[in-house]
Amino acid sequence: MKLKALLVAAALAAGGALLASCETMSAEQCAAADWGSLGYSDAAGAANDRFADRAQSCADKGFQPDQSAYYDGFANGMRAFCTPEHGFQFARNGGSFSGTCAADLAEDFSYAYADGRRVHDAQSEVDNARSQISSIESRRNQIDEDLRDRQNALRDATTDEDRQRLQGNIDDLRRRRRDANEDLRVANDALPRLLRNLDNIRGEIGGRYGPW
Questions:
Q1: Do residue 45 and residue 109 come from a single domain?
Q2: The 3-state secondary structure of 38-87, one letter per residue
Q3: DSSP secondary structure code for residue 19 in this structure
Q4: Domain count, the chain
Q5: For the chain, does the N or the C end have fewer beta carbons within 10 angstroms?
Q6: pLDDT of the chain, 212 residues: tens digit per residue
Q7: Whole-model pTM above 0.85?
Q8: Nearest to 57 by CA among 89, 35, 88
């Protein structure tokens, strides 16, 4: 496993200097391109076949791509990509894979990828709940600030018209605060359940695919 990781890192380092963007290459990059390394790094990093874009970019600049070398490298890179450990981490980090692994790797990769998706989805639910709680708390704090301003203004009001208008504002803000409190209660009630679900998945998977 360590050897595979080293091979992936080496290929990514060799191809990294050639990647000006995800779709195009400069004339200098085309001239120096190691198409085998490019194919390997595109596959090993994200199982992303970029040959068509790379080839067109280089052809436009007068350079002939090496399709055979690219896909030889790509095939080797896919074997590095299609490991359970890589599949799990790739999915856990939000990666999406719709390609095909070699028959001898496909089943183990598929199980690991599915586990990674479960972790990613559960963690996303937790993160979204926490973000919602923070947003509601900010909304309530703003309501409290507005409420204090209106109450201070009401004390200083000199006409019945101003007092009536400000009291209406205050009543509306108080209703909005009650709504915010209810939204916050619902969100806070949901978070422990989501955390338990994530913990249950973590306990089920454990260190099957390495630390995470």
A1: no
A2: HHHHHHHHHCCCCHHHHHHHHHHCCCCCCHHHHHHHHHHHHHHHCCHHHH
A3: -
A4: 2
A5: N
A6: 433 444 444 443 444 433 334 447 999 999 999 999 999 999 999 999 999 999 999 999 999 999 999 999 999 999 999 999 999 999 999 999 989 999 999 999 999 999 999 999 999 999 999 999 999 999 999 999 999 999 999 999 999 999 999 999 999 999 999 999 999 999 999 999 999 999 999 999 999 999 99
A7: no
A8: 35
Pick from 73, 58, 77, 64: nearest CA to 20: 58
Q: Judge contact between 32 and 19, C-beta under 8 A.
A: no
- Same structural domain for residues 65 and 89? no
Helix (H) or strand (E) holding 117: helix 103-156
Helix H or strand E segment including 173: helix 160-205
- Domain check: are 92 and 137 in the same one? yes
Is 68 in the same domain as 155? no
